[in-house]
Amino acid sequence: MRPIAKESILDSEEILKNLVHLLARQAASEILLLQTKENYNGKEASED
């Protein structure tokens, strides 16, 4: 039973690492999107 438990713990760690990685990528994407919107709005305002 112990090897199975150990494997499941390792699987859980891997899943958590992947989840954190995906969340970090999502956060970075949202930050870039917000910066792009701000830059676009800034250009739009300066053209008026």
Keywords:
mainly alpha, about 50 residues
What do you see in this structure?
The chain is built from one helix and no strands. It has 48 residues and is an all-alpha fold. It is rod-shaped. The model has no long low-confidence stretch (mean pLDDT 86).
What fraction of the residues are assigned to beta strands by DSSP? under 5%
List SSEs in N-to-C order.
H
Structural classification: mainly alpha
Q: Which assembly state applies to the chains in this document?
A: single chain
End-to-end separation: 71 Å
Topology:
Layout lengths: L1 H46 L1
What's the gist of this structure?
This protein has 48 residues and is an all-alpha fold. It has 1 helix and no strands.
